[in-house]
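Possible regression after last week's pipeline update?

I re-ran a chain I had predicted before the update to compare outputs. Posting the input and the new output here so someone can diff against the archived version. Not blocking, just want to make sure nothing changed silently.
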Amino acid sequence: MEIAQEVKISDNGFVFNSITGDSFSLNPAGLELIRMISEGKEMEEIRDAFVSKYDVDELTFEKDFYEFCTLLKFHQITVQTDYHEFK
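New output (post-update):
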């Protein structure tokens, strides 16, 4: 999964998709997640970072992570690069 080229993300969590005209505001955790995704980090690496930094267990994080990724795809913030893998 990659962030679409048309999507711009500000340092304060403002996300703008220039194709759709949609904009979103992320909380600090969401901003951290989207930055790690844009850096190409794998889910396991992101999960481990969040579990150690925040009060969340692995199962809860994974559920929330996949839900977040689904929303990113729905709003065309990300594009799927590997169709055999869901991240």
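Follow-up from reviewer: compared with the archived run. The longest strand covers residues 14-17. Marking as no regression found.
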